[in-house]
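Continuing the batch. This is chain 6 of the set; chains 1 through 5 are on the previous pages. Same settings as before, nothing changed between runs. Recording input and output for traceability.
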Amino acid sequence: MFSPGPSGGDHTGVSTPMTTRGRRRQRPSGPDTSLPLPKSKRLRSDRPQATGQTFVEPATAPETYEVKSAQPSAVEVKQDGLEQPAVATPRRELSVRSKKSRPADRLHKGDGTTLLSLTAAFEVRKLPAFPERLRLDATSRQYGVVDSSIGCALSLSHTHAIVWPYAAASLSPESFTFTLPHASKHATDPLPLGLLVSPSASSSEPGLVVVMPTSGKITYWESISSATTLDFMRQQRTGVEDSIYGMFSGERVTELVNVEAAAGFILAFSSGRLAYLSVRDSQGRPKVSVQFLRTSLGPASSGFLGSIRNALSYSTLQGDIAAVRANRSSKQGECTAVAVTSKGRVNAWRIHRGGHHDLLVELDLRPAILEAIRQADATHSIPSSESLKIVDFCLVPKGIASKYAEMSRLRQLPASDDQQHLLLLTSFDDKQQCHYSLIEVVIDTEPSAENSVDVGMIRPISSFTTPPSPHALAKPRIYLPKPALIAFIIFDHATVVASVAQPPESPDSQIMQDNHTLPTAFEDVIDLRQDPPLEIIGSSVEEPQIYDLVDDEVRPARVKTKNPTAVLLVRGVGTVRVVVPECQRFASVTPPKPTAKSKLDQAVFFGIKEDNPLVFDAQHNIRFSDKEYGEAALELSEEILTSSGPHLSPLAAKLDDNIKGRVRYLDKIMAHMKSIGIDLDRSTKWQLMWNAEKMHVAGILWRKHEEFLLMRPASSKKTIVAEIVDFIRTEEKSKPDRARGETDELRHWFIHDIHRMELFIAWAYEVIKHNSKAKLDTVSLTRMVYEASDLYNSTIRDAFAFRQTHLELYGLQDEKLDHGILESHYSGLLTPWTANRFVANNVKRQVELATEWIKQDPESLTDEQKMLIEKTREILPEMTEIYLSVLQELTRWNLASGDPKLMAEAQKYEELYKEDCHAKVVSLSRSGNWQAGIRIAETHRSMHALAEVLVREIELLREAATVIDTSAETSAETSADQMETIRSAMIRREDKVHECFEAYGEDFAFPFYDFLLATFGIETLLEYYSDTRYKTVYLRARPELAKISWINDIIVEDDIDHAAHTLLDLGLAREQHIWNKKVELSLGKLARMAESSRPTSKASIQEATINGTADDMRVDAIDRELTIISVQIDFYNTQILPVITVALDESEELGLVQEAFAPQFPAKYKILGQLYEDTMKRLLQHEALDPLAFIDLLTLIKLPPETGESIADQFFLAIQVASNGLHGDERYQAEQLIWRRCFLREDWKAINNTSLKVDEETMDVLGETDLFQLYCTLYANQNDRTSKVPHRRMTASQSLGVYTETLDRRFSNMEKSYREKMLEAMRWEDSKLRELVETCRLDEWTKETQRLAEQAVEKEYGDNVLTSSNGTLLKKLTIKRPGIKSTGTRRGRNGRH
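Output for chain 6:
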């Protein structure tokens, strides 16, 4: 450390350190050696002073050995390399240390440690004391030593040694820096080895010994502090130097071990040799001497060639020395040293002061170890002896109280020097992993011992399998601090904490022992960061003294501890303690054990700190299932929301920072899950996301609360946020403990009750409702309405935004969100907190309240109210959209729940959503938020609302333009400007309508035209020419608009064919009014004929032929329908109209018709009368009767003779309706019914009784029957050459059986009782006819009547029968019947059934 003066000096001299204590005044540079007066305090500072003389700063080495109170800058620290000592200038400002207290007095005055990790088993803390120079130099190669007995740490580089009290409470501790006198020649050379030496009797400061591994140079400083003073005052070396004589060429020192009991050190060499190093002579004066130990571990010969050959051969056969450890002997001045090679060779010596030694034992441990492994685990294959490697070992501590010794799985040995109790760290190597184990070995050093090696506990290390790095700055170490229950295994980037405690006896442990399996013992790994690369360069342990037996020879350690502790020296970080409190717990019934929850706690609460040197995402063999991690994540998430975990404070001076911190914790949970490859199930991911949303919303709430406070007057500082907390029921929130000073209920809620966020949100509207009932003044209510609206808007909106932006973090990037809510796949998920039905209901109520609240007359409001109402108006659109999204989410979740009750509710919610998508948007537009209404309508695809808003806005603009145009008070210039503004706005709205047509097509067009038609009528609809494509599609897609569609087809589309098709389809299938139907069919037929008359090109002749055939069929159907319509109209005009003309109103018409025409039926079969009455009502209402109903009316009505003469026979009309309107079996059955009712009109019993009657009388009776008239009409119609429809004749027997088993299609959907009654009536008719056939020879009479009618028609009229050219109905016939003088053909008597 001390450089020679300018007059001379050896450049290889030993320098001693300088301290960070007070600086001494500068010595004069001239020959005058008298000392001037001390400088003032200002002049003693490090900064240059303005004096009359020019100050020349002394030239120092690039890496100075001085450590001063001022912290060096980062640029002054250089990487380790080889430096040449610089020549000092004549002037140098020296530092003189001030009086300091003893380390033992300072270490525990304050605890400035930083907690890096905390588990149920151990805690990791970083000590504050660390020299700034080492803190800034985090990448250079260093060798470190921690000595807990002295309380200091040592760091060695190629050029410097730095010593400091590692347990000091200061961030920049008092440190000592030495420049090494013999620097390494190359940067790749092994680092110097060094140890701190216990203070001598005359000093309280430790000494230092440094060994250069390759050159064998040894330097010893007796005291690191006194050396500094002596060096500066005497300008001479105070260190003792020497070299190791007898080193082989290429041999190097690999380990330096303190054997304090023998007042020396053990040197281990790369050749396998060992040597004893003493730094004092027999008189206690400093002197370096080295003596090699007798051993078979290394070669004995020297010489250049011999050294290389022997070193290689011995290293290959016996392995490198894994470790050397020394143990205090029972005799003063003696110790036992044990050396073990990597291949299991062990030597033990008894070493005396001065280097005298005796070899106690030499043996090979591998056979005994392999045999013990085979016996302990016979189920698995035993590795080969070549794969077994000794990594390190430690000596099992002695002198432990029996109550603690019994807790350990290690053997209890008597205090004897004849046995060496070792705990080996072994490894079985394969290609990629190392399988480590802790193996207990007892070596008997007595020559007479038969069994020199006894293997005890074999404890596999399952959590760590990384092979040691060949480039590590320190070899792996194992420590077993008292009371020998916990072992620390130190690697370069990790530390394993492993329990060797003995679990209590239990049936389970006995079964495991019988099965040659060991109970699972505690084991965990502490990992260092790899970016930047951190490395453990030194380590030690701090042992508590409470577990020791009384031992006066043991010097108490300067660093006191109550628990076994590992001390790690981490390059660039400092000193780190791993403390295991209450280690006796590991021998209890419920020992600590790593869990997924504990791992997650560490990763979240400690891994989130950027300056933490530990990492928690390294994956070792301590694995937990995805399910365990998922449960742990949910538990931790709940703890964060409720601040119930040990790492969360129940008090927050700045609540906003507290919430932000907890948000980061929640995000860290998922970030850690992703980093370690945990695949959580979908439900767990969503629950974690929702919890994070609640915490994020809590932060927004608190900031809103503070914002509301600033807006409120001093007399009203209780915001809606505070009101809500007060209103929440006691059972729905945690209760503050006022005895402990928890008086702020609002902050208490935000700390402990955020998990109930949905209740908080739902209560906002309820607070306003309760205050309104309490007659709160309107100004305060206005504040509350605004604050509640802002609360709903900001919280739920930001929750949806948070959800959208954090999908990837939570592993939900494949989920499809629609404005913050899931589009689908809700099955298996819990209820989203935003989909709470109370939240949805109260947001709806708040929207409605705010909508009404902003309608107040501004003239009656204060300035504050006006401002708040305007803000509420601005918030209203987003709050409306939020309500619709919440309702939509609630609907979707209920539909996917599978619960019938919830699914039924979902149907109601879905209807409410559709209704409010329209109503709320329209209401929003009426409040002046037109643009927002349009945006929300588009967002939620409410095309009806979008159309209505656009149409209404355009109409309002037109009205405004009309008002301006007609206003006489507005100037011409102003009017023109206003009109131009309105015109521009209208153009924009029309363009928006056009955009909607293009973007949404029919989805928008149909609601648009619906609203246009309903609001402004048919004319506006037809005259809207901005769109023709979708208008035509709309009209054609709406059957009820066919009457408008055909007009559009002709006027706009010029499509006569489609117009005809529309009219015919309307008339044939949908029109119910008889007059309309006739007109529509007639117009349709006319249009069809007009279209078919257009000239056709040759190319479309074939197509025209096909279409013509189809048209012929269609025209035929039209003609048939028109025939039925003509029958109905003619029937109404000739029979019904004359009767009802005397009616005062429509209500009297049915009574008059019933009185004139109603048939009589037995009470049992009054169903036939009801059928007749229902059909007659439809006829009176001018409905177009269907063929079957019209046939019932024609066959049941009783026409009087005076009106019956004006039309053809009613049964013939019925047959005409059946033949034109029915087909197939349906027509045949209808004709059966017609003939049956025609047969039942006459008294065939009287006709059949011809007794005492002349032929003329019989012929006269037959001529008066309806059957005779029907036959006459049929024959007359048959003789009409234009008639195209043939009519069948039926006998009475052929009419039997119709509708007795099944009814026609009209009755298929009617009630069963009605159908049964109708069938009963049909059977009654059938039975009556059957009786007439069987008893009155009705079939024969039918044939006779048919023959007479045919003769009468042929004789009287021939071809003069009056018919219409299209086969319409015959009018009254005047027939002279054969055998009858002369009489007009009369109607039948219309007898009753």
